[in-house]
Design a protein that fits this description.
Low-confidence stretches: 1-9, 17-37
Mean pLDDT: 93
Radius of gyration: 27 Å
Strand order of the largest sheet: 19-17-16-8-7-6-5-2-1-32
Largest sheet: 10 strands, mixed
Keywords: Hydrolase, Signal, Zymogen
Number of strands: 32
Organism: Streptomyces plicatus
Protein name: Penicillin acylase family protein
Family: Belongs to the peptidase S45 family.
InterPro entries: Ntn_hydrolases_N, Penicillin_amidase_A-knob, Penicillin_amidase_dom1, Penicillin_amidase_N_B-knob, S45
Length: 807
């Protein structure tokens, strides 16, 4: 039977008072100063570990829950966490050198120095402290702040009571206690990841013009070039992060209840890894799922009533203001004819084996002056013009409250209500289903309030090109009326309110694969939203097209169960292969003499490739033969052939899922791409019909673990991005892809029916028994049966109960 809340409370109290404590190991390093410790209140929690090292954390209150979470995360991921805390403290140059590679999981900074200048500037300005001091709902709630306080205390207690064994940071001076402010600063870094975080190098490198660069004629960015770069920069389906998620309504399922499949595509290494747990405060909160490292709440997960997932959204989370400068002083700008002086922030960064570096950053009423958005988007600061970056998520520390609202929800309506009350999600969509059979898709994210009307009225010449093509608004900063306005239902100025968010409720299916909200359901397209949210009536990615084909067919078939979600996750169908492989095989067989010239003009015998492509099963399972050849061919083809020449049937908004189609095998680059792929594999000593899993793998414990799945351009649901190393056998280390996966439904009992999988496993420590166990499951397309209810946790054959507490 299901343990009811009162019974659960009794069980938890018993555990909290009677469970045995972890054996206390000697602490590493010297005793910590009291001022570094965020708590002296004797915080404690009970952690019950089940199969695959998944912790089920029980606590009496939010501070204790944060304590147990911080402890358990440190036990699995102390080195990754510590590295991130070094980042948000602005100490990477101190420990790793100024020119070293930054922590790319928390910003786009090109070097440690650039990262430190930005994050120390945030500290110097007291930005996070001000956000913490804001009353809810504009600032974080007391519960959220208690979670942060407890997380820091739990992390510190683990460090004090255990030795670090992970060679990545064992004995390192940079593994130190943290404060609640450090935890909040990490949350801030994630919040601005799509805004200021994209432009760290451009913020920290901004200098007032001197010499020739002060001339008004100094090179200004070419609008078309900036527009192209912005489209690439803000593409939500890029290689770094993405996701799929689908919710099915009760009209499509076997028992009239909802189903949800979440498949986020996140990095397999570093600080944007997920970590799996269950968090319980008896009678108040009970949720399970994946948390981004350093977060004290579940990011993607479920409770007894509702399940949710997120996908990276197409909303452009920043905009630019083009400043009109005083020709006599480039640090003074004009607004409605009045002079305003920029604020100078002097930041000093200590550097290992070198003198400290001091630089000045320049801030305006709109945000920081920025001289680039990525390497390909220069925004020069001249004597007459500069650009300021507006990022509304720099005032958003509310994501934890949004997550807590999800955890307490009993329906998709409650999920939507949490989004409306807290408005805390910076750069993701939400897809949800509940036990009553309801579905939800919503692009409820924090975006600058750029309406199409405002863009039409206030865009500069540059913005007139960038906004329609990419959603990046460049507004006239010399007019106060051109600042983003405020919606009455918005919790902070300058953002859209909940009533403006693209939202779809109770559709038979609601799906997103990182394209805009338009085709969350192809039969009920969403329209009428502003361009900054994304496009309407434009070509969808190959992954979106394949996903809609799959889930629409599933919904039409009906009678769905969790097992259908499991099959969809690992179907590994290649939509590009279905569209292309037959035509490619026939065109290959028709090549004169069975040869084609490669990119260097050398003839290549491609006859064997024709049969391999024809016989390929159109999947990227580990046993698929021909998948590797098609993958390398397809990558070469889309690089060689312009998009407008690739297909014979162009895209049509009237048939957006099925178009474009019919490969143009007559395009000049077709035969060349085929020859290049064949030559590449032969040079690497790889058979054209080799098993994919023999050449797409990760190495764990010195052994190869084959990995199925495929790259973004193939359109595979089970997305995997790996490093191509022909000298090392093909694809070796996975960089990004399927991460915390969950398939959730309900059967009428009080326990959800949930299957989960953390593709890269719980721990980054090679010595941990949970460093590769779920990775092997992922390789074998096997799942973990979720132990959510009390009876299931207590019946685990691997159950290990520990009590953790402050000394």
């Amino acid at each position: 039977m299901r343990i009811r809340p009162r019974r659960l409370a009794a069980v938890a109290v018993a555990l909290l008072t009677a469970a045995t404590a972890l054996p206390a190991a000697a602490a590493d390093g010297p005793a910590r100063d009291r001022h570094e410790r965020p708590s002296h209140g004797g915080l404690s929690a009970v952690i019950r570990y089940t199969e695959y090292g998944i912790p089920h954390i029980v606590a009496e209150n939010y501070a204790d829950l944060g304590f147990g979470t911080g402890w358990a995360q440190a036990a699995d991921q102390v080195c990754v966490l510590a590295d991130g805390f070094v980042t948000v403290r602005g100490e990477r140059s101190r420990f790793f050198g100024a020119d070293g590679t930054s922590d790319l999981s928390l910003s786009s900074a090109g070097t440690n120095l650039s990262s430190d200048l930005y994050f120390r500037g945030v500290r110097r300005a007291g930005t996070v402290e001000r956000l913490l001091a804001q009353p809810a709902p504009r600032g974080p709630s007391r519960d959220a702040k208690e979670l942060m306080r407890g997380f820091a205390a739990g992390y510190n207690a683990w460090l004090e009571q255990n030795r670090v064994t992970d060679p990545a940071c064992r004995g390192a001076a940079w593994v130190r206690p943290v404060t609640a402010l450090d935890v909040a600063a990490r949350g801030f870094a994630l919040s601005v990841l799509g805004g200021q975080g994209r432009a760290v190098d451009g913020i920290t490198a901004a200098r007032p013009p001197a010499g020739a660069s002060r001339e008004p004629s100094a090179t200004q960015p070419a609008p078309e070039a900036v527009a192209r770069a912005a489209r690439e920069l803000f593409a939500a389906d890029g290689a770094d992060m993405g996701s799929n998620a689908v919710a099915f309504s009760g009209r499509t399922t076997a028992n009239g209840r909802g189903l949800l499949l979440g498949n986020p595509h996140y990095p397999w290494h570093g600080g944007r890894r997920f970590w799996q747990s269950q968090q319980t405060i008896p009678g108040r909160l009970n949720m399970a799922g994946g948390s981004l490292l350093g977060s004290a709440t579940v990011s993607i997960g479920h409770n007894a009533h509702v399940a949710w997932s997120h996908t990276v959204a197409t909303g452009v989370t920043l905009n630019l203001h083009q400043l009109k400068l005083d020709p006599a002083d480039p640090t003074v700008y004009l607004v409605d004819g009045r002079r305003e002086r920029m604020t100078a922030r002097s930041v000093t960064v200590p550097v290992r084996d070198g003198a400290p570096v001091t630089r000045t950053q320049w801030w305006t009423r709109y945000g920081p002056v920025v001289t680039s958005l990525g390497a390909s988007t220069p925004l020069p600061w001249t004597s007459t013009t500069a650009y300021a970056l507006n990022d509304p998520n720099a005032a958003n520390l509310r994501a934890s409250d949004t997550a807590l609202g999800f955890g307490r929800a009993r329906s998709t309506d409650d999920v939507l209500d949490s989004l409306r009350r807290t408005q805390g999600l910076p750069w993701v969509n939400t897809v949800a289903a509940d036990a009553r059979g309801h579905t939800l898709f919503t692009q409820s994210q924090v975006l600058p309030r750029i309406t199409d009307e405002l863009a039409a009225r206030c865009s500069t010449a540059l913005g007139e090109v960038t906004y329609p093509s990419s959603g990046l608004a460049v507004l006239d900063g010399s007019r106060a009326a051109c600042a983003p306005g405020r919606d009455r239902d918005a919790v902070q100025p300058g953002i859209f309110g909940p009533s403006r968010m693209p939202t779809l409720t109770d559709a038979p299916y609601a799906e997103n694969s990182n394209d805009s909200a338009w085709l969350a359901n192809a039969d009920r397209p969403l329209t009428g939203y502003e361009r900054v949210f994304g496009t309407v009536g434009t070509q969808r990615s190959m992954r979106t097209r394949g996903a809609i084909e799959d889930v629409a067919a599933m919904a039409d078939r009906g009678g769905l169960t969790v097992a259908d979600l499991e099959r969809q996750q690992f179907a590994d169908r290649v939509p590009a292969g279905d569209l292309v492989a037959d035509d490619a095989a026939r065109a290959c067989a028709a090549l004169p003499g069975g040869t084609a010239a490669d990119s260097a003009g050398r003839p290549v015998d491609v006859r064997a490739a024709c049969g391999v492509l024809a016989d390929w099963d159109r999947t990227v399972d580990v046993d698929s033969r021909g998948a590797l050849l098609f993958d390398r061919f397809w990558r070469a083809l889309i690089k060689a052939v312009p998009a407008g020449q690739l297909w014979k049937v162009p895209f049509s908004p009237a048939d957006p899922v099925a178009t474009p189609n019919t490969l143009n095998t007559g395009a000049p680059g077709f035969a060349t791409a085929l020859a290049d792929a064949v030559g590449e594999l032969r040079a690497a000593g790889i058979a054209l019909d080799a098993r994919l899993g023999d050449h797409q793998f990760v190495v764990r414990g010195g052994a190869r673990v084959p990995v199925g799945g495929g790259t973004e351009s193939l359109g595979v649901w089970n997305k995997i991005e790996s490093v191509w190393d022909p000298a090392g056998g093909g694809y070796t280390e996975v960089t990004t892809g399927s991460s915390y996966i969950q398939a959730v439904g309900w059967d009428g009992s009080r326990c959800p029916v949930a299957r989960t999988l953390l593709a890269y496993s719980q721990s980054s420590d090679p010595a941990s028994p949970h460093h590769a166990d779920q990775t092997r499951l992922f390789s074998g397309e096997r799942w973990v049966t979720s132990r959510f209810c009390e009876r299931d946790i207590r019946s685990s054959p691997d159950l290990r109960v520990v009590r953790v507490r402050e000394r």
